[in-house]
Write a structure and sequence with these properties.
Elements: H1 11-28, E1 35-36, E2 43-46, E3 56-62, E4 85-91, E5 93-100, H2 104-109, H3 114-138, E6 163-165, H4 184-196, E7 204-206, E8 209-216, H5 218-229, H6 233-243, E9 258-260, E10 263-267, E11 274-275, E12 283-284, E13 287-293, E14 298-302, E15 314-318, E16 323-336, E17 338-339, E18 342-343, E19 346-352
Parallel strand pairs: 1-2, 2-14, 6-19, 8-10
Antiparallel strand pairs: 3-4, 5-16, 7-8, 8-13, 9-10, 11-12, 13-19, 14-16, 15-16, 17-18
Helix pairs in contact: 1-3
């Protein structure tokens, strides 16, 4: 029986495995449901450099319209409202990683494909690298100075107006005490700030409804559930959502913690520690920076010439063809959006958060 196989660096094999890696990486991230190319996405993918050269992508940030409109047959012409947009940019750089087999004898002992093994390993690495970079950017984790972990762009310090602290008494991460844990009241404070600040944050549209998304650390999630459950309110919130006909749209059925005040609550262990406001590069133990997001909270851009997908796939033989190595690379950048040095689509919510 004739068998069809593809040798090392066969064009079809490269295309196949590159495409597999591209699809799997973004799909596996916690923020996958909120990534898209339009401006209503929390994480917006910019594709300008996928067709042309450049290591910098400048993009627009759209403000909400504020005009009152024209009633009846009054003249509309000449009373239009200008679209207000600001610009921001993201820098691109290349990041690479590779794996290598121990040798042909090792490959003989295992019942799986070395290519598949390489795909799985690189997929997990890229998934963690991109998700970690996104949260380090959104949470202004200036304590992380290695740009390989911040999306090839340095983390941007909080702007001073779009940061809240749980409990309402602290004004720095290092000032948080054991009583300053995350509660539902803090989510209300985020919604209030998002809708009243100038310019107001734009919510994201999910299944035709306006929502916000709050990403919290597992320690914060534990405290949030415990504080709400003590009064019975946590379970009442979920029951009300179900009785209100939101069973299929309720995020709790997709692995989310729940929904409160139109805010979907997601949990991710990559939410970083708080940062000391004096040194900016020192992490604060027993604190976490939850992040409250609206539309265009962050942008990710990929470069061109990355094969059929965004990631390259290169295979190479070593040691007289005894070992197979596989490398993957991507030219990309991730950045938290700002306008006039103010955070555009996100609010940092710091709280005391120790393990239990």
């Amino acid at each position: 029986m004739a068998l069809t196989s593809f040798g090392v660096n066969d064009a079809l094999a490269v295309k196949l495995w590159s495409k597999k890696l591209d699809v799997e990486v973004l799909k596996e991230t916690e923020i996958a449901d909120y990534v898209g190319e339009d401006e209503n996405s929390i994480i917006q993918i910019k594709t300008e450099t996928s067709k042309s050269a450049g290591d910098k992508v400048t993009f627009g940030l759209r403000m909400q319209l504020t005009g009152t409109g024209i009633q009846g047959d009054s003249t509309l012409e000449g009373n239009e409202e200008n679209l207000v947009t600001y610009s921001d940019y993201v820098l691109l750089d290349q990041l690479r990683h590779a794996v290598i087999s121990a040798g042909r004898m090792t490959e003989q002992r295992v019942p799986f494909s070395i290519r598949q093994h390489a795909l799985d390993g690189l997929k997990d690495w890229w998934t963690d690298r991109i998700a970690t970079s996104i949260f380090n950017q959104l949470c202004s984790n200036t304590a992380q100075t290695d740009t390989r972990l911040t999306g090839n762009n340095s983390a941007i310090a909080p702007d001073g107006t779009n940061q809240l602290w749980a409990g309402g008494s602290a004004t720095t991460d290092q000032g948080l005490g054991s009583s300053d844990i995350l509660t539902l009241r803090d989510i209300d404070r985020c919604v209030e700030l998002a809708t009243t600040k100038t310019p107001a944050m734009r919510p994201v549209m999910i299944r035709g409804n306006k929502h916000w998304v709050l990403f919290v650390h597992p320690y914060q999630a534990f405290q949030l559930r415990q504080s709400a459950a003590s009064a019975g309110s946590w379970f009442d919130i979920q029951k009300a959502a179900i009785q209100g006909g939101e069973v299929t749209g309720n995020p709790i059925f997709k692995g989310s913690l729940g929904m409160y005040n139109n805010t979907i609550i997601r949990v991710d262990s990559r939410i970083p520690l708080g940062c000391n406001s004096s040194t900016t590069t020192t992490a604060v133990a027993n604190t976490r920076r939850a992040i409250f997001c609206g539309a265009q909270a962050a942008v990710i851009a990929f470069g061109k010439d990355n094969g059929p997908g965004r990631f390259t796939w290169v295979e190479k033989k070593f040691d007289y063809d005894n070992q197979l190595g596989v490398s993957s690379a991507a030219i990309f950048g991730i950045v938290k959006t700002q306008f006039n040095s103010l955070d555009f689509g996100s609010i940092i919510l710091s709280s005391y958060a120790a393990s239990h």
